[in-house]
User: Fold this.
Amino acid sequence: MDMSQSNHPTEASDEAALLRRYAEGDPVAARLLAGQMTPRVFGHAMRVLGNHAEAEDVTQEAMMRLWRIAPDWREGDAKVSTWLYRVTANLCTDRLRKRGTTGLDEVAEPEDPQMSAEQNMQQTARVDALQKALNTLPDRQRQAVVLRHIDGLANPEIAAILEISVEAVESLTARGKRALKQALEGQRDALGLSDE
Amino acid sequence: MSDKNHNDDIELEALFANARAHPPVVPHEMMARVIADAKTMQPSGTGSRWRNWFAAFGGLPALGGLVTATCVGFWMGVAPPDILPDLAAAVMGVETTANPEYEGSVINGYGWDIGEG
Assistant:
């Protein structure tokens, strides 16, 4: 996976241009922005919170803040998606603080009709196992790992989102990966990883 | 790096790749709510046309200059300096010419001629 892809300047300017079109009243831009940004926000919230209803609430609130700021958005400021990830991360942090525990649902994944029932079960088992392992991490580690290894962002962008240094991001993701390996210890065969 | 650690890394990366390949599906109802919010919050096209015009005009500095120029122009119309031609008369078709007698009477009115004897 190309981790630098999300930092491409064209993508940043496209996002800003789309937001400007939205602010100018273009109805197509509203749909395009919603279609581009909502899955990313929801995916991140779902991985960090591990709860469908809370992830939906956070996504709707984060997108609402994007619509609200659109008329005042200045091109040349932060990248739109970076700003939106930061809002989402903060909303998730607020939820996690209020919750106080890590009692989380499993992430329900859709079944792929192209795969056999056995493959579907294994794929679901892998996603669930990773989510359960993620849920055991401290909140900041989980956010950093999800941003880096699932959302595929580069460390400087994660640093901007979590408002910490790049070194702190590196430390969080390294510790997070170590903890994940420990949490997944002994599940290799059950997850079918030995076949690969 | 030990073989075990290396294998663990590969397996973890396989799980990450699986998660990336199968992101949580956005519920249709939630997407509909997000789009509805977007439409509710979207500024109207009329407002944006005004904003575009304003931006094309040069924004606040240009508008400030225009207001200043308008005020100066208005004041010059009300109380034009002596060095300016009588624009109103020229526009209205009234010709003003120098009238020594009239000017003399004005001077008389001030009593300057009396003062000088």
